[in-house]
Amino acid sequence: MTRDCRTRQGDERHAADVSGPSAPPNEAEALAAVSRLLEASDIESVWAALRAVLARYGFDRLNYTHAPALRDPVHLSRSLRFTLTSHSDPRMERIYRSEVLDRSPMRRWAAENVGAISWSRQPELLREYGMEADGPELNALLADLGFHAGYTIGFPFSALTGKAAMGLTARPDLDQPAVDAIWGRHGPAIEALAGAAHARMSQLPLELPNGRLSPRQREILSWIADGKSVQDVAILMDRSLAAIEKQLREARKRLGVETTAQAVARVALLNQLSVPGRAG
């Protein structure tokens, strides 16, 4: 069974196996798949639907990384990235938490550009970015992990949701020229499907590295985001000031921030705010 990992959390998800080779979707099937992606109610459903449809184009392993555009210094930590991978190699989680893939020219290209790029251009990018010295080690690692042929997609930057990228790895029986031929025929449809998945996942709540906030903690932060003071929140929620401050301390710790203002910003960017006055 292919394993899905949310490496940002160290959490592992299991989904149905992606079936073997089959015909690419026709236009009606691709449009139906876009609708399913946009209507999915949780990130796991989006991911499963995307994997299933892209497998029909020959891409049986996917990686998705989303870095929220946080304005405080702690956003630089790799542990705050939200990552999904369907690669089964158990080393993937450790690699995503390290700086190894930060040296990938495809990762850099996706961070700076919007659109799709063939992995055939990696030698060119190594030269362009002055990374040729890293080439042999990086190429050996990628080959060992099974990144033999594929495409990388960079999504548009958003001040609210940040920057995201997706790597599409082809089946082992497909080499890069074959993948480029597939992209020549179906590239726009594949990009539309990946874009729909990214758009939907950007709207859904992202889980936190240290677990979920409680409904009460989210309600408190939502009241503060609405302009209320801590004293106001205590009155509105009929709790003592000490109880509210304790909840805020626990929320800041779970969010990995130092101030309540940072906590509000973090929760807003991760789509975790609730409607003030209604926990849950």
Automatic annotation (TrEMBL):
Gene3D superfamilies recorded: Transcription factor LuxR-like, autoinducer-binding domain, Winged helix-like DNA-binding domain superfamily/Winged helix DNA-binding domain
Protein keywords: DNA-binding, Transcription, Transcription regulation
The HTH luxR-type domain, residue ranges: 206-271
Composition bias, Basic and acidic residues: 1-16
Region feature Disordered, mapped onto this chain: 1-25
Keyword Hydrolase: no
MF terms (GO), sorted A to Z: DNA binding; sigma factor activity
PROSITE patterns, A to Z: HTH_LUXR_2
A GO biological-process term: DNA-templated transcription initiation
Alphabetical list of InterPro entries matching this protein: RNA_pol_sigma70_r4_t2 (IPR013249), Sig_transdc_resp-reg_C-effctor (IPR016032), TF_LuxR_autoind-bd_dom (IPR005143), TF_LuxR_autoind-bd_dom_sf (IPR036693), Tscrpt_reg_LuxR_C (IPR000792), WH-like_DNA-bd_sf (IPR036388)
Protein name: DNA-binding CsgD family transcriptional regulator
The species this protein was found in: Jannaschia seohaensis
